[in-house]
Design brief:
Distance between the termini: 12 Å
Number of strands: 18
Number of helices: 2
Helix content: under 10%
Shape: globular
Oligomer: single chain
Length: 321
């Protein structure tokens, strides 16, 4: 049987959304904000998994990684926002977009555009001394791309922290200045539009109507109730892969039915996948598909789920499809 091995706790923060709204200045919102996205249904969680699985000995931002753009984000002394993009296979900073910054303050969301990746934005979501934050400087960038599941937010710092200890398969890294510089920096690699960066085709993800039967797998993120903006009922991200590890269905931040405590998910598969979360935080999530019934603690289905961290837990499971 083929299945995706459990992704450990370092990935738990990748699907986090901001618990406070971002500032969106109408003056800097691009007119193209509402256009159809190129990565149809493919969020950052999916890209993270692809990086881990595809880049065995390198990272998304490495110069040698093809079909990617490297986005560099910096602040200095609590301001001085800078952004660079390099879509070539070299170790330079690339094109300097820093002069476009108009909202260099905590919560200010700055929009950019590059033909290789389309529209994207950077928001520095925290700052020392603001809302009780004790870390110096303007920090915790949130990276969003229009072509990644319609501006799916990526907490860059959480992504770096969660991947600590890994030598490869990293989406983002730190690039702080030396002692006394007061410069904070983050670098991420993202797939280019219309190419197969990280083994993904960004224009055809989750768009087929067929699937390879056999052993299908799911990556599941469960968002804790009453945490980080989640209401009284659990919410789920689910990404289903067919026997060839091709994504064939995805939902993001979908709540369970408040009465039945179930969530029905359609995909390319002929039957509906049903998730049930009627217990408490420590209870297993139940799955049902095509007459199969199992839980997130069922080893026969290769289920392996972690503990809650920062308001979510995640893991993988498999089933016959």
């Amino acid at each position: 049987m083929r299945y995706i091995h459990f992704v450990p706790a370092f990935a738990l923060a990748l699907g986090l959304f901001l618990s406070t709204p971002l500032i969106t200045d109408a003056a800097v919102l691009p007119a193209i904000l509402g256009r159809k996205t190129g990565i149809d249904g493919m969020g950052f969680a999916s890209i993270i998994l692809a990086v881990i699985d595809y880049l065995k000995e390198s990272n998304a931002y490495d110069p040698s990684t093809p079909d990617k753009c490297k986005i560099s984000m910096y602040t200095t002394s609590g301001g001085g926002c800078q952004t660079y993009i390099n879509c070539d296979q070299n170790d330079g900073w690339g094109i300097d977009l820093s002069s476009q910054w108009q909202v260099c303050y905590v919560g200010g969301r700055q929009f950019f555009h590059d033909d290789h990746i389309g529209d994207f934005s950077v928001t520095f979501s925290k700052a020392g001394g603001v809302n009780g934050d004790t870390q110096d400087g303007l920090h915790t960038p949130i990276l969003q791309l229009a072509d990644v599941s319609n501006w799916d937010p990526l907490d860059v710092q959480a992504t770096v922290d969660a991947a600590a200890g890994r030598d490869a398969g990293r989406l983002c890294t730190l690039d702080n200045g030396g002692a006394g510089t007061q410069r904070l920096g983050w670098v991420c690699g993202v797939p280019t539009i219309g190419k197969e960066g990280f083994g993904l085709d960004s224009n055809t993800a989750v768009q087929t109507s067929t699937f390879a039967p056999g052993w299908c797998t799911m990556h599941v993120v469960q968002y804790q109730r009453n945490e980080n903006g989640v209401g009284a009922d659990y919410q789920f991200d689910v990404l289903i892969y067919d026997n060839n590890k091709t994504p064939i269905g995805q939902i993001q931040k979908q709540p369970i039915d408040p009465n039945t405590k179930t969530l029905n998910m359609n995909s390319n598969l002929p039957n509906v996948m049903v998730l049930t979360a009627s217990g408490g935080d420590g209870d297993a999530v139940l799955f049902a598909y095509g007459g199969q019934n199992w839980g997130s603690n069922d080893q026969e289905h290769h289920s392996n789920f972690g503990q809650y961290d920062s308001g979510s837990r995640q893991g993988d499971t498999g089933f016959t499809c």
